[in-house]
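Researcher: We plan to redesign the surface later, but first we want a full-length starting point. Tokens attached.
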């Protein structure tokens, strides 16, 4: 499948609330009340950082204010620094690593379904908040969760195939009836809302259009959504 070259990430810029809401509305074809729900959810998770209500500070003070809490002793400073610098590809891989470490696994392994259902809540909140904050609300597990629920899924840990496919099409994981692989992920501001973090690489799926792989990634994502809701993220 031919794809256009990935654009180099540009410097991060903040969008006003109204523009961000319009982006969501146009992207998902939603009503105003649906957009407001998504936006209020994101604000509650990031302490209002998305619409820049806090006074501007220098970078060092901003970094010091990030909550990098972990229940498992995971160091999230590198992930924070990569996201702050707009290095989305490196941050995506670092997300894979820190999630493994949070469940006691190492590089080149993958997360199991039962581990997602019990994923440490502090660590999940830290990872998600950093993604949402430094992408100005464009990326993050909670962004993906809201889209998944809006297109028809429930937060009960069950796999909803139709909603999973709709989500994948909305966030650019499935293009022209074909599921993308890691090499085809868009790392940059041109990526669709919710495109990152890329989910397949977190659970060890590498093959394009493998029915078993597509099903299993959907099952795992449904478990993540259940955990996000259970811990109020």
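Model: Full-length starting sequence:
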């Amino acid at each position: 499948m031919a794809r256009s070259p990935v654009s180099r990430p540009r410097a991060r810029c903040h969008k006003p609330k109204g523009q961000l809401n319009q982006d969501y509305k146009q992207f998902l074809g939603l009503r105003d009340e649906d957009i407001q729900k998504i936006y209020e959810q994101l604000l509650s998770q990031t302490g209002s950082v998305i619409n820049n209500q806090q006074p501007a500070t220098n970078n060092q003070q901003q970094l010091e204010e990030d909550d990098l809490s972990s229940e498992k002793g995971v160091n999230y400073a590198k992930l924070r620094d990569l996201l702050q610098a707009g290095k989305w590809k490196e941050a995506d891989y670092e997300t894979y690593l820190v999630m493994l470490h949070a469940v006691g696994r190492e590089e080149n392994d993958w997360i199991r379904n039962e581990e997602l259902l019990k994923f440490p809540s502090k660590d999940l909140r830290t990872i998600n908040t950093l993604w949402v904050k430094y992408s100005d609300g464009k990326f993050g597990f909670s962004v993906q969760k809201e889209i998944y629920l809006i297109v028809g899924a429930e937060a009960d840990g069950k796999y909803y195939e139709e909603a999973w496919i709709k989500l994948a099409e909305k966030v650019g994981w499935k293009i022209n009836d074909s599921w993308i692989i890691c090499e085809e992920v868009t790392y940059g501001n041109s990526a669709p809302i919710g495109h990152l973090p890329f989910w397949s690489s977190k659970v060890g799926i590498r093959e394009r259009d493998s029915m078993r792989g597509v099903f299993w990634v959907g099952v795992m994502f449904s478990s993540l959504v259940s955990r996000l809701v259970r811990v109020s993220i």
